[in-house]
Design a protein that fits this description.
globular, 329 residues, mainly alpha, 14 helices
Length: 329
């Protein structure tokens, strides 16, 4: 059986050849040795996502495809600099770390919330379908031939089985399985946590949403999915700063959460990372009210690279963003 041949035909290039190619396409390089160091350490392909905004647009009339989205040529726009690409990469790395810091705090706090709420009803609540929503525990998903709860518990059991944590080994040796929810939940990743929240009863979901001043549990569900998506992007060290969010957050009705009113019907703002920063700021003011996280976000945004082809509006930032309640006090 013959394997399919790839149509990829670009030649292998040494780091020196890669640099010369970039210069021939119009990218300004002020220090070849430094540029080569970054190419060796970070890789051409990873950096290409950061110099992409600096490439010339191909007019729609000249494109060979019928796509309505503008495409970019290999040539760079006048004044595009390699150092701006590196500065944007460093900014993006700091942004990922800052967002991961807040997401981790949300995740840990949410673990405590669920364990405390359900643990009072049953120490092994996650194994008791009667304490969960019927759609989660009884409705068969035709795509997988089982309930979402069955799929969830299977992933949970795999985590327990693979775990090498001392506290898990100790509990299993002394008491056996299952683990009580306040022990087991420490092994759940954000994805497992957010899916479990979806499977809780409406009453319990509403209790937790209210704790975070969110008027609708469906919004809470959506926000957790968005945070899980962003966390996965960060975990894979992928470009984040101008990413188009695949899992966009739902918003409250006009007036229910006034701080988020300006996001309503603004697709650009709700599809970019700025809305996630605001969601995290909302959580952080409740979880860690004395944290300097918001201040660090403001400081980082002020450090955004000075470039003619990249700006914070590409991240969904509105004008006068610092005047919004998220970044005050």
């Amino acid at each position: 059986m013959k394997s399919k041949m790839s149509r990829y035909n670009k030649p292998y290039l040494t780091f020196e050849q890669q640099l010369e190619l970039l210069k021939s396409r119009g990218l300004e390089v002020t220090n070849d040795l430094t540029a080569l160091e970054y190419l060796r350490r970070l890789g051409y392909y990873r950096l290409s996502g950061y110099w992409y905004p600096c490439r010339k647009l191909i007019p729609l009339a000249e494109q060979q495809t019928k796509s309505l989205r503008p495409r970019r040529s290999d040539a760079f726009m006048p004044g595009a600099r390699f150092q701006d690409t590196v500065a944007l990469y460093v900014f993006d790395k700091k942004l990922r770390l800052l967002m991961l810091d807040a997401i981790e705090r949300v995740e840990v706090a949410f673990r405590v919330d669920i364990a405390y709420l359900l643990g009072e009803k049953d120490p092994f609540a996650y194994t008791n379908p009667d304490l969960l929503h019927g759609n989660f525990t009884k409705k068969i998903d035709p795509k997988i031939g089982k309930t979402r709860y069955q799929e969830w518990i299977s992933k949970h059991d795999q985590l327990i089985k693979r775990s090498k944590e001392d506290f898990v080994e100790h509990y299993k040796a002394k008491y056996g399985l299952p683990l009580p929810i306040w022990v087991a939940i420490e092994l759940w990743d954000f994805g497992l946590l957010s899916v479990f929240y979806q499977g809780m009863t409406v009453k319990d979901k509403a209790v937790l949403a209210k704790k975070y001043n969110i008027p609708d549990w469906q919004i809470m569900e959506s926000w957790l999915r968005t945070l899980n998506y962003v966390r996965n992007v960060v975990a894979h060290h992928s470009r984040l700063w101008n990413r188009n969010l695949i899992d966009q957050p739902k918003l409250a009705k006009l007036g229910e959460m006034p701080a988020f009113d300006r996001f309503i019907s603004n697709i650009h703002m709700t599809s970019r990372v700025y809305v996630v920063l605001c969601i995290l700021a909302h959580y952080m003011k409740i979880i860690c009210p004395r944290s300097t996280w918001q201040m660090r976000v403001v400081e980082l945004i002020h450090s955004f690279p000075d470039s003619n082809y990249m700006n914070i509006q590409d991240m969904g930032f509105p004008a006068e963003w610092e005047q919004q309640v998220f970044w005050k006090d």
